[in-house]
Structure formats: C-alpha cells, structure tokens
Amino acid sequence: MTRGERSIFARSWREAVSATGVALPEVVFEALTGHAIRDLTAEPFAPAVGAGLGAALVDAGLTDPAAPIASAPVLLAIAGSVGRAEVAAGYLVALGQGHQARRTESVLPDERARRLRILFDNSAAAIAIGDTEGRILEANRSLADMIGIAPDALDGISVYDFAHPDDHEHIRTLLYEQLIPAGKGTVSLKQRLVRADGSIGWMNIGITFAKGTAEGDPDYLVAVGADVTDQYRHQAELHHQARHDPLTGLPNRRHLMETVNRYSATADEGALAGLCFLDLNRFKQINDRFGHTVGDRVLSAVAARLHADTREHGDHLIARIGGDEFVALIAPPTTAERVAAISRRLAAVFREPVLADGHRLPVTASIGTITTRIARNGAESLLAAADAGLYYAKRNRSSEPVPAPDPNAFDTAAAFELAQAVTRPLR
C-alpha cells in the first residue's frame, strides 16, 4: 500500500471518529492505520490481534464505546485493500473486545453493560449471539435490516432460516466439525442470504466461539457480518465481461478454453468430446464493400442464430474466438454421429441471407469438425485439431461440415502445426 493510500485511510478514520467528540491530530490516525495494516497483512493472520488495536484506540484517547463502531467502515476498507476482507469480521470482533477490556478497570458494571448495549444496537455491522445449536438468542437491527424483518423476529430462529439451502451443508461442516469441536476460534464464510421478500443477497460473516466465563455458564456463538451483495454483483459482472465477447455477447476464447480444460481434467478415460470450428467465407469482402459497421451487424446476426440453436437444443456451447471465427463445443461424453448432426444443424443457420442496414447479404461458412478423446488433452491442441478440420473444409470447398481425418485418433500436435502453417493464409 502506498504512502498516499495510507494517508487517505488516516484522514477518513479521523473524520469517522470525530462524531465521538474527540479531536486528535492526523498523525495519531496515521499510526493507527499503520497498526491495522501490520495486523491485517501478517502471516499467518490471527483475528485476535485486533484486540491490540482496540486497546490502542483507548490509549490514543478514543475511549468512547462508539469509537470501534465509527472505525469499523474504515477498517473494512483497509482489509479489502490488502485482500483480507473475508476475515475482517473476526478482526473487528477482537478489536471491540480489546477496546472494552482496556476500559473495564475504571468502568462500573452497569455502565459497562449500558455501553455494550449501545455498541450492539447501533453497530453498522450485523451482529448476532446464538447458542451452540445455531439458534439466535439476540440480534441487532443491522442484521434484521439485512434480512428485511424486525429485530425481535430473529429471536429463537435458526441461522439456516435465512441461509440459502445450498449453503446449509457447508455451514454445518464449519460449525459442527470445526468450530464447536475445537471450543475456540473463528470461522469465516461468504454465504448467500435469503431475504424476507425472497431475494438473494450475499454476506461475509465471521462466527466466533465464545466460551462461558464461569463454571456451568453456557457457550455462545457470536456472528459479525456485512452485506457484500453489491461487491459480489460487481465481481460477477467483471467475471462475465472477461469471458464474453462484447460485440455478440457469446462466450469468448477464454471462456471456451477454461471449459475445455475443465472437461479435460474431469472426463472419464476414453470419453469423446466434439469441436466444430466455423469460419465465415469471404467476410473480408463484406467489410471492404459495406464497411465495418455492416460487418459487425453481420457477425451479431450470425451469433444470434448460432446462440438460438444452442438455446433450443442445449447440446453444445457456442463461442466467438475472434474475427469471424466461432467454435461449438460438444461436451463429453458424445459420439461422432452426434457431433456430425450438430455441425449439420449449425450449417443450416446460414441458408437464409443476413439482413444488415437494408442489405440482404448471403453469408456462408466453412465448418471443420473433430470428435476426439478429451481426457488430459489441452485446450490449445484440441482447438488446433478443429482448426485443421476447418482447413480441410476450405480446401475441399464443401458446403457441408468436413471432419478431420481419423478423428478418434487425431494427432493433435501435428494438427496444431498444420493449422499454424496453412490455415491462416487461406482466409
């Protein structure tokens, strides 16, 4: 983290705690920021070190119980900037404990309880205290607002009541196979949240085992979390953009390669997969005569037809891997007959001319196919094999899809060399 970024965090922190009525010089917050960064970047990371920073707040003069609450958003931002967002909840719990511990010697029990109640009720973080069976005993308004119900409606319900059903087993494993048997520590998870209106959100949550303070006292689970739905959606959108073609909306080469490699790593030995490599014929002439705007609309129209076939039949993935090149991937297990049938069906989408800016343009494609064993074959070599099949299709001037020779025992290394040597100049 740069010095400038630290200064920004320090100023933000100073402004955040100004509401507590204590005005401290910025240098104090620069020191506190450095303390937080050291804690959050330590290897191995232990959430309990947050107690030290909580004590440091008191030592700096930030004795108001609202100081940890005011500090929480800044500390969450610092944790996110150093890649520790998923463990920030446990760190903040320890910070609050450290802050309170440093103040307890001179604070009367009733006053301490009152201030803890203020902290609990007004915390921006979602907080819940539960028993070791997973039932909520008390929760604050932030958690209730996150779910969309009244705080008292949370009393006695199970954590599973607002967790997504698909996450129940993961939560059970964390709580009843790790945290509770250990009798100490914190587990962190990013889970889906089912709101009262049925919508789905995401939250980062840390659950800490709190042992009873005296003999016979019950143990508790303390959960502290934050709504990260917007962050999750942003990450999902970035992931989608990185794996889809902006012009046509189809999966791109990266998406295709990742899918092929996943099949390659998980397919049964001997399982066959199919690839159909499509290349538009004389597409350059369309661009040269009508301009790239019309060319782009032709590509979009072709992509829409190919994608419509995918939606209708659901038996392959269609991707645009660049220029006027498209690839259809037929997942394993498949057969040569099935791949041939799909490739003929894809060829049929070119029977009707494409309408673009008032032009009725006949568009055709050459299609090379390959059906081959996919286990432990890399994506590059399999694409090269399909590309070589495309070379044969262009060479034979066929309007029908052309398979590469001997597809079930195709020499993919040789195919790659062939595709590099002869396919590109023919287009």
In short:
The protein has 427 residues and is an alpha+beta fold.
Helical run tally? 15
Q: Roughly what is the average pLDDT, rounded to an integer?
A: 84
Number of strands: 12
End-to-end span in angstroms? 49 Å
Estimate the strand proportion.
Answer: 15-25%
The biggest sheet amounts to:
5 strands, antiparallel
Low-confidence stretches: 405-427
Describe the model.
- With 427 residues, the protein is of the alpha+beta class.
- It is 49% helix and 18% strand.
- It has helices at 3-17, 26-41, 50-59, 66-81, 88-103, 109-122, 141-147, 168-182, 229-242, 253-266, 283-290, 292-313, 336-348, 379-396, 412-423; strands spanning 126-130, 136-139, 186-194, 200-210, 220-227, 272-280, 317-322, 325-330, 354-356, 359-361, 365-373, 402-403.
- It has a five-stranded antiparallel β-sheet, sandwiched between helices. The chain has a five-stranded mixed β-sheet with strand order 7-8-6-11-12, with helices on both faces. A two-stranded antiparallel ribbon has the order 9-10.
- Helix 4 packs antiparallel against helix 5.
- 36% of the residues are buried.
- The model is unreliable at 405-427 (pLDDT under 50).
